[in-house]
Amino acid sequence: MRIRSIRARLTVWYSSLLTVTFLLLGGAGYGLLSYNLAQDMDRALSGVAKVLADQARRTGAASFSPDVDELFRRFFGFSPWQRYFDLITPPGRQEFRIPPDSGKLPLSPKAREDAQKGLPTFETVEGPGRHPVRILTLPIVEAGRVVNLVQVGMSMEMTEATLRRFLLTMAALFPVGLLLAGGGGWLLARRALRPVDRIAQTARRISAEHLAARLEDTGANDELNRLVGTLNDMLERLDASFHQIRRFSADASHELQTPLTILKGEIEVALRSPRTPDEYRAVLTSALEEIDRLTRLVEGLLLLARADAGVLRLDRRSVDLAKLVEDVCGQAKILADAGHVVLRQEGMEYLTIFGDYDQLRRVLLNLVDNGIKYTPAGGQVGISLRREGPWAALRVADSGIGLSPEEQKQIFERFYRSPEAKSRGEGGAGLGLCIARSIVEAHGGKIQVASTPGQGSAFTVLLPLPS
Ligand code: ADP
User: Fold this and answer.
1) Which pTM value belongs to this model?
2) Does the beta carbon of 393 sit less than 6 angstroms from any atom of ligand 1?
3) Which residues contact 105 (CB under 8 A, 6 or more apart)?
4) Whole-angstrom Cα Rg for the chain
5) Do residues 78 and 157 both lie within one domain?
6) Are residues 394 and 456 in the same domain?
7) Which of 275, 291, 309 is the last residue in one of the domains?
8) 426, 429, 434, 435 alpha-carbon torsion, rounded to 10°
9) Residue whose C-alpha is closest to residue 441's, from 466, 457, 464, 416
10) pLDDT digits (tens, 9 = 90+) for 216-249
11) Ligand 1 centroid vs 418 CA: distance in angstroms?
């Protein structure tokens, strides 16, 4: 089953980790406790055995004080009622021989073997009751000879009870701890994820029509607030592009509507009463001009749409830029002469790039045309071609009306025309520079403007030279 909510998933993870930690710690605790208890028991057995052995050695007989219980309590602090001991006296004097079943406590072959070597043996054996018994078999050595054996046993009941109590405590604490931690985890996750719900709610309200809405910024420097920041930035960009698209559609329909209205008006007027052939010709010529304007506009919009979609097709081949400048100058000469503007070629280097000749011609012609349009009679427009590092720099500089810094920022936007240009009734729809930039960028280049109002402008097209 897949758990869908992050909160539930976090809680499950948290509880699982806690269970593993609890089990590991519990296991380690249990192991340590049982090891320590066993050590304590062996130490106690050794102590008791030593006392008994000393006593046997002192008295020289196989008997010991009847007050052993008292002795135990004083030295070791426990009652010996569950402890067993035996003193085995070997019968032979010359040779030490241990009888196979000499006392209450069992004597294993291993303990017997170890005792003959003078070594103590610790063993755990079945006890008389329900609990096993831990036994220490300690040889009593005198003058290098084993003369006797002391066996001390202790029921493991207490040890087992302690371990059982430990396990019971763990078993009781585990579900409570798990429940508390799981509940706490669930609440914590809910608290931590509450802002996410809030973000989701606000985001649900934001649609294309309400892109101005923003997610609430808490000012905290945490992950969620950073996410809010990123989403708000994204909304900002979306809002800007939606705004741009809406303005573009409005501008485009307005620009298309104007020539159509003029066309319709002219034709209607012409049809209202009979006209002479010359009058009809004039109307048709004007209609053709409007149709040309419309065609150019639609072509421009189509080119921009293709560039936006990244499907602007370039017919790339080797382009001699000096020849391109010559070509454009030849065509623009008529415009310059009509506007009484001097058109000059300044500083020409012979540079060749790889690109679309017709599109680049369109760019340069637009720049030169603008230069002539926005330069008063008597002014000049200069074209230069130079290498600037890895670029071929085509510069069109005029001594015209110039552009303010604000205008310079906007001239590459679609349908932007400066108030000055609008009042003069000059120019086209304000798509020329935008189209120029799209073409230049499709060539991997860039277009820059530098201008001083009243003194003139310089547009530079930088195209990458083949390396
Ligand atoms: P248009 O077809 O209207 O000339 P452009 O995109 O070519 O459109 O130019 C946009 C605007 O930039 C123009 O309306 C004009 O205000 C300004 N502009 C462009 N070139 C020049 C220039 N050389 N000098 C002054 N203003 C310019």
Assistant:
1) 0.57
2) no
3) 84, 85, 86, 133, 135, 151, 153
4) 52
5) yes
6) yes
7) 309
8) -100
9) 464
10) 887 788 888 888 899 899 989 988 888 878 888 8
11) 7
Name which residue sits closest to atom 16 of ligand 1, judged by CA: 418
In terms of domains, do 302 and 323 share one? no
Q: Is the CB of 458 within 6 Å of ligand 1?
A: no
Which residue, 383, 362, 361, is CA-closest to 372? 383
Helix (H) or strand (E) holding 135: strand 133-142
In the predicted structure, residue 208 carries a pLDDT above the cut 80: no
Among 147, 162, 177, identify where a domain stops. Answer: 162
For the chain, give the percent of residues with pLDDT over 70: 87
* 436 and 327 in a common domain: yes
Residue 149 to residue 210: CA distance in whole angstroms: 98
CATH number, domain containing residue 25: 3.30.450.20
Q: Are residues 326 and 449 in the same domain?
A: yes
Whether 213 contacts 206, CB under 8 Å: yes
pLDDT digits (tens, 9 = 90+) for 283-322: 999 999 989 989 988 998 889 888 888 888 899 999 999 9
Total count of domains within the chain: 3
Residues 113 and 55 in one domain: yes
* Same-domain pairing of 366 and 254: no
Closest Cα to residue 394, out of 462, 347, 323? 462
- Looking at the chain, how many residues does it have? 467
CATH number for position 231: 1.10.287.130
**427 CB under 6 A from ligand 1?**
yes
Residue 353 lies in a domain: yes
Residue 201 lies in a domain: no
Range with top average pLDDT, 95-99, 177-181, 220-224, 452-456: 452-456
Q: For tokens 């349908």, name the residue.
A: 415
Q: Which is it for the CA torsion 407, 411, 413, 419, positive or negative?
A: positive
Q: Which atom of ligand 1 is nearest to the CA of 400?
A: 24
Verify that 373 and 445 share a domain, yes or no. yes
Domain that holds residue 258: 223-309
Which amino acid residue places its CA nearest to atom 4 of ligand 1? 427
Ligand 1 near 380 CB (within 6 A): no
